[in-house]
Amino acid sequence: VAPEIETRMAQYEDGQIEFAILSLVKEPLIKLVDALAENVKSIASIRQRLHQMESDRAGPQSDSTAGDELGEQSLILGPCEKYRLSQEAIDHAVLSPEHEELLKSGDGVAMSAIVLDLTTAQASIRASIRDEIKAIQTDDDRAASRRNDKGLLAKGLLQVVERMGRLRIFMESACCS
């Protein structure tokens, strides 16, 4: 965390640094991407098991399209730069105990229902990630414009000049008294 804060602080001129304690809080985006990784891993694992079960029933000649009706076009099934989802994050994701049990049970109907639920959940997670990325970009844009705003520098100089003027008046009154 410290290197990140130091990097951000270096981008500002003296007297322009304004940091809140919230800058030390873990970004929600990290948790959201982790949730997406778990979701993707769960969908992939369950779909793989469904495909395996379908192949076992139909034999080796099967050209199964099991799972195509599950909205594949709208699913993320692997790494996706847009959502900052890496293969490493997917690999490190842990399936929930419920999903682990479901995979062991071999209940195809229940697995299909869970994949549909996970698909709906993924849409919500993706929307939250998009919102968070947009908020981060807005904050970064605002910070960049503040760094380049010479009005803050001028205001600070005026305050210093005003304080110096008060000091001079104070010193003159102290010397003459």
Give a concise summary.
With 177 residues, the protein is mainly α. It has helices spanning 2-10, 28-58, 87-92, 97-105, 108-147, 150-176.
Care to describe what's here?
This protein is an all-alpha fold and 177 residues long. The protein is 69% helix and 0% strand. The protein has six helices and no strands. The chain has helices spanning 2-10, 28-58, 87-92, 97-105, 108-147, 150-176. Helix 2 runs antiparallel to helix 5. The two termini are 54 Å apart. Mean pLDDT is 79; it is low at 62-72.
How widely separated are the two ends?
A: 54 Å
- Fraction of residues in helix: 55-70%
Q: Roughly what fraction of the amino acids lie in strands?
A: under 5%
Tally of helical runs: 6
Order of helices and strands: HHHHHH
Derived from helix and strand composition plus strand pairing, the structural class reads: mainly alpha
Low-confidence stretches: 62-72
Mean pLDDT: 79
Rg from C-alpha positions?
28 Å
Largest sheet: none
Overall outline: rod-shaped
- Total number of β-strand segments? 0
Question: Main traits of this protein?
Answer:
mainly alpha, 0% strand, 177 residues, single chain
Write the layout of secondary structure elements.
Layout: H1 2-10, H2 28-58, H3 87-92, H4 97-105, H5 108-147, H6 150-176
Helix pairs in contact: 2-5
